[in-house]
Amino acid sequence: MIGDTLDLTTNKSLYTLTKECHVKGGFKILESGSISGVFHVPLLNYARSLGLEGQVEKDLNVETIKEALAKNRFVLLSIDLAKTTKNHTGGHLILVHTYDKATDDFIVHDCAHTVASNGKNAVVPAQALESYSNKKGLTLSPVVA
Predict the structure, then answer these.
(1) d(Cα 4, Cα 144) in Å, to the nearest integer?
(2) Is the pLDDT of residue 62 over 70?
(3) Are 11 and 3 in contact (CB under 8 A)?
């Protein structure tokens, strides 16, 4: 999502990006075919290979997310799916890209549509984001030459 937004990955399909991330250790595929985790350090290394810079974050709360966004950084936030609906388990990553101070809402991309029925530019109140959050993830921005 970030790569397309910044025109860094428009020449690669989602399939290619997924396979490259897997090869670089970004996630594991179990024998059952299900995915086991997304690992932040390998994912960050993959993001760097695509022209992004960033860091692994271990204490992402609403205030630190606002600070990152104010510095023009994207936040790839780990959320607890069980806190979004009773039918889900495990973790999931969403892209937090905007904060609306007037409404105290965050705007996110959620490819699995777990935090809102529309996955693109979904509006998530700050209190809801705080309740879903695992407080971990990545902050990312384009490499500045």
Answers:
(1) 17
(2) yes
(3) no
